[in-house]
User: What shape does this take?
Amino acid sequence: MSHHPKGKLRTDLNPSRLLTFKIDDRDVSAREDESILEVARQNGIAIPTLCHLDGLSERGACRLCIVEVRGVAKLLPSCVTFPRQDMEVITNSERVVNYRKKILELLFTERNHVCSVCVSNGHCELQNLSVELGVTHVRYNYLYPEHAVDASHSRFSVDHNRCVLCLRCVRVCDEIEGAHTWDIMGRGITSKVITDLNQPWGTAETCTGCGKCVQVCPTGALSEKGKSVAEMIKRRQFLPYLQMMRGRQEESWQK
Amino acid sequence: MTLNIEDLHQIAKIEQDTQQGFQHRINVCVAAGCLSCGSGVVKDALAREVGKRGLDNWCQVKGVGCLGLCTAGPLIALEVGGRFYQGVKVADVADIVEALGASPVDRLLYPDDSAFFQRQLRIVTENCGRIDPERIEEYIAESGYEGLYLALTQMTRQEVLGQVTESGLRGRGGAGFPTGLKWTTVAKTVDSTKFVICNADEGDPGAFMDRSVLESDPHRVIEGMAVAGYATGASQGFIYVRAEYPLAVKRVRMALSQAERMGILGNNIFNTNFSFNIKVRLGAGAFVCGEETALIASIEGRMGRPRPRPPFPAEYGLWEHPTLINNVETFANIPPIIRHGGKWFAGIGTEKSKGTKVFALAGKIVNTGLIEVPMGMPLREIVYEIGGGIPEGKRFKAVQTGGPSGGCIPQQFLDMPVDYDSLMQVGSIMGSGGMIVMDESSCMVDVAKFFMEFCMSESCGKCAPCRVGTRQIYDILCKITAGGATTEDLATLEDLCDLVKHTSLCGLGQSAPNPVLTTLNYFRDEYLAHIHDKKCLAGACKTAKEVS
Amino acid sequence: MKEESATPERKSASAKQPPEDHRLRMVNRTMQLYRNQSHALIETLHAVQESFGYLEEGVLKHVAGTLRVPLSRVYAVATFYHSFTLKPPGEHTCVICMGTACYIGGSGAILGDIKEKVGIGSGETTPDGKVSLLVARCLGSCGLAPAGVFDGEVAGKLSPDNVIDKIGRWR
Assistant: This one.
């Protein structure tokens, strides 16, 4: 099993080959194995993301980072798309910006995101994205699903009402901590993150209590107990470091 | 045991002689459709009757694969005389045996001149309904495994790839990707381990072509896969088949062990240095596993969630090795292409769609069943001549092709030729071959709702637009059919369809809006009637007005 | 061992330390066939379902341990695929096909009638444990639409009345 460094799926990309291409009419240079998203960020060009997190494998699932590439009909997720020589990438056309807004609105309708009573109010990536993208109202109907809060763990709690199914918790637990306590049950709109055999978190035997899942969660779905809103700032600086140090000794469960 | 061509011919000869030895041969359809209306007991009763009369050496009774006309089951074909009996019951058995060699039993006869049998062109299904699918000898007697022999002993890999490319065959699973190109791509990869996968996870509701082929002629698919293995350099194959098809699974397993026993699968096939094995893997009820990367994930024992492509399975597939994935019907086309040459195949069909296509005709149509026609046959001919038209004197409204990824084709396109590009032009797709006919009593909004419910519950949930978007679209369609929607809802519906189509991760999401988009395009009046007049034009939905 | 399988509750209690009964032997044989490799998970779950009738929690733990697959991943796979069920099935099973041809032919009305008259929806079992209702995506018996499967036997050209009648005979 030859995994590419950084947990990428692309064994076909050569890190020693360099190329130049255009992002929003700016000339940029890149290694062949750097994603469009990485190169854009190096050059100070912001592309919104949600499932992406530096230090974790890519999923290409939230679709917020879609960009246009001249000459390609399909919109491409910049986190898993790699530049080619002379490619012309447009990150902020009206078309993609509108799509991003709508996707974000869909995420707001999916669960019960009530910011005013959320522990992550003010430090929430979903909230920040809506400010960034200028989402002021939601044009779709709210689905109001019924979800419980699981506070069975002694130090942490999970509130499924705030979950956006980015699966950062699943990935960090598998790829960095190596416990694979988290996974996702069901499918489609009924998907839900679970610990072990869909049991209360506090009873999950495999959980080491490391709390990395809480730190990577973009919203208030995973939080530390007893922390005030002001204290609930998440720290993730350790991630790229741990990813490098621990390498990838075994096949990842989360592909 | 290693066979050579003489051995193959010998087996074929013995089999043919045995067949010729019988004055009469009664073929009873034992594919799932006929079995479910009792063809199994009919077959046993016939065999008993023949035995009782001491005619064992004179008349053969055997179970065969799908005869195609499922609506008239249980079906029986008399091979001498070429007549069909329909709706046969155990009580008819004595009369049937009695009438052998005399004039046939009129009350059971299926009309001889019927377009259903006359207008078809059978390549993929050439053996369906003629051979016993549980005996490899009968397949060999119909030139079975000769294509593989030819490929292995007289053709280079390049020549096989050349023939497949020249044939113009396109993938029969849905999108119509050129098969030769796919094979060549996998052949070009340098990995020493490669895989060939047969996608038999036929998930479209209303489609049963692959099931019929696997139940009726499993060796044909195995042969096609082995040829693919040789051409691409793979030595291991997998057949990923739905667990919902127990009979197909059983017959495929049986066929595999027969082929292994004869040395047609295994090491050094036909004394060459080519080795190939095939394993069966069961699906577990997930439509999305028809998507290549999801199917691979499922074979690897994981949830069938697609991943972004590239990298494509051709270079990075099963267990990270180059992998060729084709559907059942695609592989089933390979043996005749090798036997008769790519040029022969390219002479059938239209300029860009070569060969034939198997369709499962169902819905509001007289002749429900399985048909195979040349590409490019006008839709009208399929519906009205082969299909026999609409029952109960009702009016034709639409044909749905391509399942949940396809669209509804209205009356104005009835004269359109059925091929990949024409279907695409009207907003539908060829898909795997389900063809559902709808009459005036079908509400097109309700049909769109049916497919959207399907996509919603089959969505894997990985990407946000498909996961949440399909649910939102479904909710609006429910609101419309219930008579509670407004014009704004219609605008939101179109907006959501556009979003899901263009931003979803895989083909399931990208094509999920198609049934809604085509019905909005061709049957907008039905949507508007629900919204403005709170009325269902077809009388199928209970709208708010009618309920109150 | 025999008396332990008397009720579902007893079953799960006994399965915490799975007895080497014949049902488990079949599951173990499947895993051995794949040399206990993790990719045998789906095939193994099929074997569990076939021999136990459903995916019983204790057996899932056993499978997870043998194949060295994380518990949460076993649960994830078990709930992703619709062929698997985590609840013991009723004594009799009625499957109604909701493929396109069957839907066009009226299987929606049949489901509605079952809900109304028998009181169970898809995936549910009557309180007396007699009858389970399942919905199939497509049985492939489109020629017989609307079709269903009653305790393993396919029946075609169904109507709400004859379905209710068939179910009634089980109770």
